[in-house]
Amino acid sequence: MLFCLALLMAPLTGLAEVPPQSVFNPRPAAGDLILPMPDGAEMVFRSVSVPGQGFWGDRDRVIQIGDASGGIFEGLQRTQISGSFARDDGSWYLVLGKYELTRAQYIAVMGLETLLETSGDPQVRELPQLRGRELRDALMQPLAYVSHQDIQAFLRAYNHWLFDPDHPERRARLPRVDGVPGFMRLPTEEEWEYVARGGMPALEAGTFNDRLPFPTRQANEYAWHLDNARHELRPVGLREADGLGFHDLLGNVQEMTSGLFRPEIWQGKPGGVAVRGGSVSTPASELRSSLRAELDIYAWNADAERVEERRSFNTGARLAIGANVLVSSAQQARIEQEYEAYREDLRRTMPVGRTLDNLVAQASVQLGTVDPILDRLMAQNPDLVEPLRAVQAQMDRARERLELAQRESARSLTQDAARNGVNLSVYLSRLARLDDTLGRARRLAEISTRYQDQVDAVERSIHDLEIAAGEQLRGYQDKVAELGDYEPQYIEHAFQVLDATELPPRERLVMEVLREHVDVFSEQRRSDPQVWMQDFRERFEGFEDN
After folding, report:
1. Ramachandran area for residue 525 (φ above 0: left; ψ -120 to 50: alpha; else beta)
2. Do the Cβ atoms of 279 and 254 come closer than 8 Å?
3. Regarding beta strands 254-260 and 315-317, do their DSSP bridges make them parallel or antiparallel, or are they unpaired?
4. I want to staple 451 with a disulfide (CB 3.0 to 4.6 A). Which of 191, 319, 444, 530 is the partner?
5. Is cis: bond before 122, omega within 30 of 0?
6. Distance between CA atoms of 455 and 437, rounded to whole angstroms?
7. Is 90 exceeded by the pLDDT of residue 206?
8. What does the alpha-carbon distance between residue 537 and residue 473 come to, in Å, rounded to a whole number?
């Protein structure tokens, strides 16, 4: 074991940059964050800025991920990308491993014997017999053929080593939140895709939503895939770095993330572990930043009729450095103070406050990504400026039509919700009157049984009206939820148009209640049918149509 690591620590020649080149950092670059590991090994990270200021961020922090032309699990989604650490100027950043986790790094923490015991890779069995360059190349390969549980055990052991109280120097370079150092974990899917797409430089250049972060014809220069690797893993760092300085995000091994696989990242049935990036078994034509797959943590072996921990020859991991959300009471107080302003203004426009389930809104967002692409093409191809401007004019007209469609759709939904509200209020008024009638009929039935038929009839009417009122409330809820997916300006326009019409008193009052409920839903992203029903009861108590 010591011989293996000593061999790896021998410096490589040919690059005179700082930090120096080593087997753990074969392609050093400015900005590399190098953390220690046992026996002189190293783990290299890079920081990636995220847009916006402050803990809660701003609208610039909302990104679009996925690929409409990708697989069924890559639908377009809007999400907020957040960092784990803040700089002195208020900007935020996340930290991700520069390379995939290698066999050598796993051995440094867990030991060669543990790798031999846990790995399902037949090549690992040959490590003790290898020497020289052959051994070096084998140890530089990404760790694969281990289970998700094995990766978690590695993370736990590495964190324990870093935070050994007798060795504070080990954690000295870790990024911190209010003086509290971060810790090792797997990246989230959102973090992984944000980095794979090129981060802020790609957002600013208008290339963030491109299918690949590099030209398709250059795939061989940036990634090991089926067409150039033929299912054979390669040492990390041999392909070119992407624009942020990371290697092998696409290709080589597909990389485990921290979350369970859901069909749409945010929602759907939770399954195994989400893996990203494709591998040496992915055709070059299928490589894309949005590519995601499921690794079944526990796999059913039909032949042996037993469950096994899944080990895949082309699945590995890349580390991230994370931090707890709350690290101190002082920091919590600052977050709470910032939240009031965030809740009042920004939250309802963020993905947590609205979705892209509305297909018209989705189309509008997708059209908005075209402008920077057209601008870039015009700058690169002066002879195409005129035809591209014609395309841009067509896009502008399409946006105008979508704008009108969203306004009309929001108005229609508001009108339909109001209609449900009017029906609900009428049923509640009738129920109130029937309650009085039922009380009188019951008092008469106490005097004479001949009034019992009247009691039964009134109770049946109340039952039928309660069912009808419940149906109207459900329709009202559904339309308020749909309306809550629209941008505030479309909702406001809908109410302005309807308020400008001559409405009967009952409908006018329903519009007031509806506006309150839409505002509550837009802020909280949930409805409360019991509270809303009580609101209608109170507002229409004793109401009489003129």
Report:
1. left
2. yes
3. parallel
4. 444
5. no
6. 9
7. no
8. 12
Q: Enter the tokens of residue 402.
A: 């979508």
Query: Torsions phi, psi of 355, nearest 5?
Result: -125, 180
- Residue 262 reports pLDDT greater than 50: yes
Please state whether the predicted TM-score (pTM) of the whole model is above 0.90.
no
The DSSP call for residue 496 is H
For 186, counting Cβ atoms within 10 Å of its Cβ (0-12 exposed, 13-18 middle, 19+ buried), the class is buried
pLDDT digit string, tens, across residues 282-329: 999 999 999 999 999 999 999 999 999 999 999 999 999 999 999 999
In order of start, what are the domains of the chain with their CATH numbers?
Answer: 32-322 (3.90.1580.10), 397-540 (no CATH)
Token pair, residue 262, equals: 């859901």
**CA neighbor of 226 nearest in space, from 286, 276, 274:** 286
Instruction: Give the whole-angstrom CA distance, residue 96 versus residue 418.
Output: 50
> What is the rounded distance in angstroms from the CA atom of residue 198 to the CA atom of residue 250?
12
Residues 14 and 32: their CA atoms lie apart, in Å, by 18
pLDDT tens-digit readout, 395-410: 788 778 888 888 898 9
Instruction: List, in order, residues 6 or more apart from 497 with CB less than 8 Å away.
Output: 411
Q: Report the candidate in 260, 244, 336 with the shortest Cα–Cα distance to residue 294.
A: 260
Tokens of 217: 């014809």
